[in-house]
Amino acid sequence: MLYAILCYKDEDVVAAWTEAEDAAVMARLGTVHERLERQGKLGPSLRLLPTTAATTLRKGGEPPLVIDGPFAETKEQLLGFYVVDVADLDEALAIARDLAAANPGGAYELRPVLLYNPDPRMPDPRKAAG
Amino acid sequence: MSATDPDSAWIAAALAASRPRVIAALLRAFRDLDTAEEAYHEAVLRALRTWPRTGPPRDAAAWLILVGRNAALDGKRRRVRETPLPPEEALSDRDDAEAALAERMDASAYRDDILRLLFICCHPELPATQQIALALRIVSGLSVARIARAFLASEAAMEQRITRAKGRIARSAVPYEAPGPAERAERLGTVSAMVYLVFNAGYSAGTGTERAALCEEAIRLGRLLLRLFGSDPEVMGLMALMLLQHARTPARFDAEGAIILLDDQDRGLWRRPMIAEGLALVDKAMRHRAPGPYQVQAAIAALHARAARPQETDWAGIDALYATLERLQPSPVVSLNRAVATAKIGGPAAGLARVEPLAKSLNGYFHFHGLRGALLMQLGRDGEARAAMGRAIALAGTAAEAAHIRMQLDRLSRDAERPWKKRSARVSGAARPARPWGEAARKPGDAAEEERTRMSQNPETAPAPVKGGLVAYLTVDGALKAAEFYARAFGAETVTAMPADEQGRTMHVHLHVNGSSLMLSDAYPEHGHPFRDPQGFNLTLMVDEIDARYARAVEAGATAVMPPTEMFWGDRYGQLRDPFGVLWAMNQQKR
Predict the structure, then answer these.
(1) Looking at the complex, does the CB of residue B225 fall below 8 Å from at least one CB of chain A?
(2) Which one is predicted more confidently, B142 or B336?
(3) Contact assessment for residue B490 and residue B514, using Cβ atoms and an 8 Å cutoff
(4) What InterPro entries is this protein classified in (chain A) (predicted)?
(5) What is the rounded CA–CA span in Å between residue B200 and residue B204?
(6) How far apart are CA B66 and CA B91, in angstroms?
(7) Of all helices (H) and strands (E), which one includes residue B513?
(8) 8 Å CB contact between B574 and B564
(9) Does the pLDDT at position B457 exceed 60?
(10) Which domain holds residue B19?
(11) Eight-class DSSP state of B55
(12) Partners of residue B4 in chain A, C-beta under 8 Å
């Protein structure tokens, strides 16, 4: 079962981290990532630039409207996501709890994945393993 | 609690992130900077007591505003009659008052509060130095000691500067009502300029720590502006410009703290995430088709950032961007910057053609003469080149500027040996990013490195290595003869020497002596550098085998002043004077 773990956090707080604090958080997360990777549970994961770098295309009108900034102004912003391969929701939650311990504050949204298209430029690890 | 302790780091980060909003809102409530600051500090004290127990509030800024306001009112009330408000411990995550306040404090309310706060800090009646100090103190919350260190001022002087600025603001009429759209745009321009001043103060600050602190504060203020004015292309440009310049920081200085030229920087050390963010913002800004000075400067920085190697720099693009900047913000300095790019693509003659018309307005500007001299030298017009270099050295405002020109002379004397053709610009149209605004663009934001880069036209030549963080630079009568003598007496090696003029004088010689650099030049009275007898110092060589070294120097022609002797501090030490009047010492340390 694939789950997407969407990472929400106040990006102002993340921006207030010093370089050392940022590195410390990344190092703690790195420990969790390594374990998941060894267990074969970690799929692609991304960290996004701040929403100030975002552009939104509103599809309602014709032509679609291009707006500077994120889709929604929220207190906490989508800053990245993981895809994990787990047996069930409980296991996904356990992973989210480990990530939360390494990087407190904010929220993780767990969303089951309906369709997963691996990066066509990369060999599909599942096929290679099979 | 350590800064990297995950259980407590969130408190520090939440406080730092919410500070400008909270101070701004408290300022609106109390209309007085000192009261707002006191109320903020009270709120922070209470947060440090309460948050570790209750966990993070839903909206840290709203919590602090509410508590700070209550605390200040409580203080007033207490002074009137002893009836306190309910304690903030009663405020829970879902407290109605906090929720209600958070609702009211929507983006636009925050925006006007913060803009007002920043605008007050850069009140037009305040000199720039006071504006910066006040913004760093009030908005960023840096300690007075920290700000004083950054500006090499004493803490007392900085405290006074800030107090004076506050007093001036208190006495003048400060607009507290929400600004109209036109006024808001005007304020935003003033505030952007102040933020960039903070950044530049950091960019040129003396030590690495202070540099980082000020640049990071400016970037944080820039982020704040960008969050509030997310569709203003100039704010995007300002942010991109700061990110792209700050990204180079790890490559800008060598182990001794000396500046490394843009062409010589190890581009692998540049901070990629910052560059990615800066490039994304430049792209976004360009979509608006409303170029402004920050955007154009950012676009120039972006072209440097996109070049994996200096030789891949899109100088044609940079030249075009400078042309745009000449239109947007006409200034002879911008035109001078453009001449560098022009020389890179069209050769020294084309560059010189842009430089010459600036003679009238830039006659007193040392970079003008430095660049002109460099271009003349490449064209083989040595006599004129030397005169221009002499002017540049005479005009150097600081020792650093003078040293900088001399370093360039070091390089130029090497570059001059190569015909320009061999290193013709390798700018190709391939993989060049889309040119933003038709023809061209930009201004002098990148002054620091580009000024330095511009004098050297040959990126493939390594600069002569300067040894040591403190280099003695002697003005002697007969610099080339002195160099010969130092070779015989002290084993000096000549790294570079500018050729002699008709009178046998040279503007620059660079030696390595005993593991350090030593630089020499002749006196040029006609450029305001007359010869003076050297006195009041000696050049001390730390040596082993002092007796042999001393004997060799005397044999070469130095006059013994004090033969090597065991001194009261335990070392063996001696002094001698060279034929040019310079006093030398040798010291052999006790083992």
Answers:
(1) no
(2) B336
(3) yes
(4) Dimeric_a/b-barrel, YCII
(5) 6
(6) 10
(7) strand B509-513
(8) yes
(9) no
(10) 6-105
(11) -
(12) 20-21, 24
**Domains of chain A listed by start with CATH number:** 2-47+82-116 (3.30.70.1060)
In this prediction, residue B532 has a pLDDT band, given cuts at 50, 70 and 90, of: confident
- Nearest CA-CA distance, residue A127 and chain B, Å: 33
Q: Which residues contact A37 (CB under 8 A, 6 or more apart)?
A: none
Name which of A48, A51, A68, A73 to mutate to probe chain B: the one with the most chain B Cβ atoms within 10 A of its Cβ: A68
Span B71-84, pLDDT tens digits: 888 776 666 555 45
Q: Which residue of A has its CA nearest to B225?
A: A52
Q: Do A53 and B107 touch (CB under 8 A)?
A: no
Q: Do A53 and B280 count as a contact with CB atoms less than 8 A apart?
A: yes
Instruction: Assess if residue B185 is contained within a domain.
Output: no
Query: On the CB side of B321, how many CA atoms lie within 13 Å of its CA?
Result: 31
ipTM for this model: 0.85
Contact with chain B for residue A22, Cβ under 8 A: no
* Contact criterion met (CB below 8 Å) for B456 and B314: no
Q: Which residue has the higher pLDDT, A35 or B35?
A: A35
- Please report where in the chains the tokens 């009330």 appear, as a residue: B77
> What would the pLDDT profile of B423-456 be if each residue is shown by its tens digit?
333 333 333 333 334 333 333 334 334 433 333 3
Q: Are residues B406 and B282 in the same domain?
A: yes
CA distance A84 to chain B (A): 24
Structural domain ending residue among the three candidates B105, B121, B148: B105
Residue B153's pLDDT band, with cuts at 50, 70 and 90, is: confident
On whether both B496 and B578 belong to a single domain, the answer is yes
* Chain B residues lying within 8 Å of A74, measured CB to CB: none
Amino acid at B239: M
Q: Average pLDDT in the A5-18 region?
A: 89
Token readout for B74 is 């409580």
Q: Which of residues 71-100 of A touch B (CB under 8 A)?
A: 73, 75
d(CA B466, CA B406): 11
Could you please report the per-residue DSSP string of B88-133? GGG--TT-HHHHHHHHHS-HHHHHHHHHHHHHHHT-TTS-HHHHHH
Cβ within 8 Å, pair B277-A17: no
- Is B227 within 8 Å of chain A by CB? yes
Starting at the edge strand found earlier in the chain, the sheet holding A2-9 runs: A42-47, A77-85, A2-9, A107-112
Q: Which of A21, A53, A75 sits opposite B4 (nearest CB)?
A: A21
Type of residue numbered B403: A
